[in-house]
Amino acid sequence: MSAAADDTPIWRFLRADGSVIAPAIRLLPDGRIDGHAHPNEASWALHDDCLHFVTHDGHSSTVFDQAERTEPGRVRLRGQFRLGGEAGVWHVLEQADARTKLALGVAEALEVDARGVRLRASARVRALLAEHKIFFGRADERLTDDDEILIGRDAAIEPYAAFPVGLELCTMGAFSYAESALPADLAVGRYCSIALGFDVFRDRHPIEWATSSSISYDIDARDGYRAFIAAHREFNGGRFVPAEPAGRLAPAPQIGHDVWIGQHVQLARGIRIGTGAVIAAGAVVTHDVPPYAIVAGVPARVIRMRFDAALVEALLASRWWEFDVSVLRRCDYQHPARFVDQVLELPDAERWHPAALSGERLLQELRARA
Questions:
Q1: Which of 82, 111, 119, 197 sits at 20 to 30 Å (Cα–Cα) from 312?
Q2: 3-state DSSP: the chain helix, strand, coil percent, rounded to 5?
Q3: pLDDT tens digit string along 116-149?
């Protein structure tokens, strides 16, 4: 691609309801549409101050004749689809941020947005994930061509991470697994075990307002409640302006290394679970958990420590989880005090720092193999 093409804006091509037709396209100077191949959108042209998408046989398919500025430097175009007598079908072109261009030329890319990268789990996507030693089942891999996966915006997934259930991939350290579907913005360290029924608190409702109902804000065309959208359309003529509650969504929990989370545990957002902690089944955890503490109850409280303070300090100082799994063969993990002494004798140079996979890196590798 030419340098000039690289400088052209990136657009998201959407239906009026916000569903994605193409996550990233460029309108190249020669009339080609980069990132989308369809007979109805074979090329583009300007006529009568309108942007036309043109079919392969020269007819205008969609005419974008409405424009609005969404934020400084960003534009959204709306236009009606004019083929086949389908009145009332509208399309949208929305200027996207620069990183969205990573989706160009990746047939599996469905969306690149604030949540992360959404992809069809094609055979070549599955093959790349397998190359990075990221696993999705027990005896058998469970992903199929019909599945869509979401890799969180800031996700960094290390080799030997396992996602036996769920289609959202979060930061996951090596040798960790979760038998529960995880939210894409969660961060899990190495050597962690997460049981069935794990959940993270959702967004905060504005109890300080006259109404705590999310009908006042959860009405985005792409992922808001359809009932609320319909109600505002009928009673407010679509003119209601939502207001975002302060602190609606706190950061996801941060889970340290070697954490064991039992069945049906709930974690509040914005908390940290310390390395070596154990969360008993059924606990509702609303505050930080110290390293190597065992917590239980609703709300969860520390019931005891796994080890005495000196051994906890030694385990944390050893940072044993920075070694690959051979550390469990070379050091006596069944006797923690002896284990720490043996870990401290290992050369620092042997600490293991594999490259983590992100959504952007996966897109780059898919583009390189297109």
A1: 197
A2: 20, 30, 50
A3: 999 999 999 999 999 999 999 887 789 999 999 9
Half-sphere exposure of 141 (CA within 13 A, CB side): 15
Dihedral sign from CA coordinates of 103, 109, 112, 117: negative
Tokens 């050893």 belong to residue: 318
Percent share of the chain, pLDDT over 90: 73
Residue 157's DSSP bridge partners are 172, 357
Q: Are 16 and 90 in contact (CB under 8 A)?
A: yes
DSSP string of 167-193, one letter each residue: SEE-EE-TT-EESS---TT-EE-TT-E
**Chain CA centroid to CA 246, Å:** 22
Give the whole-angstrom CA distance, residue 265 versus residue 131.
32
**Alpha-helical runs (H) found in 115-222:** 123-131
Find the helix or strand (DSSP H, E) in which 64 lies.
Answer: strand 60-71
48 Cβ contact partners less than 8 Å away, ≥ 6 residues apart: none
> Is 111-202+249-308+356-363 in CATH node 3.40.50.300?
no
- Is 335 one of the annotated active-site residues of the chain? no
Number of H helices, E strands in the chain: 7, 27
pTM of the model: 0.84
Q: What is the dihedral of CA 208, 212, 215, 217, to 10 degrees?
A: 30
Count the Cβ atoms, other than its own, within 10 Å of residue 226: 10
Count Cβ atoms within 10 A of the Cβ of residue 329 and give its class: 0-12 exposed, 13-18 middle, 19 or more buried.
Answer: exposed
Q: Which residue has the tokens 């796994």?
A: 306
Domain boundaries in the chain? 3-104, 111-202+249-308+356-363, 206-247, 317-350
Of 205, 257, 264, 287, which one is the catalytic site residue? 205
Task: Indicate the SS3 state at residue 268.
Answer: coil
